[in-house]
Fold this sequence. Notes:
Layout: E1 11-14, E2 23-30, E3 35-38, E4 43-48, E5 58-63, E6 66-67, E7 71-73, E8 84-87, E9 90-93
Amino acid sequence: MSKMFIKTGDTVMVLSGKSKGVKGEVIAVSPKEGKLIVKKVNMVTKHVKPRKMGEQGGLIDVESALYASKVQLVCPKCGEATRVGHKDGLRVCKKCGKEF
């Protein structure tokens, strides 16, 4: 298991899969599984059962988790997907050198 360099609130770009090339914000991170959830990416249909009287059930679209290796951080300065370096304990863009 490797360390994850992506945190909640970061903007990432999807590198592979059905949502390839899409940029989105990270909603949740699970370092133990090596997965994360990105807003409006990897949408799946979920069947919801009504729990209370009068509540409506049906199908809803929700984001599903995807592996962290399938995404790359987007630099706020240059706006491109980039690898992450470290300098004095901070995350740094490998292309332009800006801190995250």
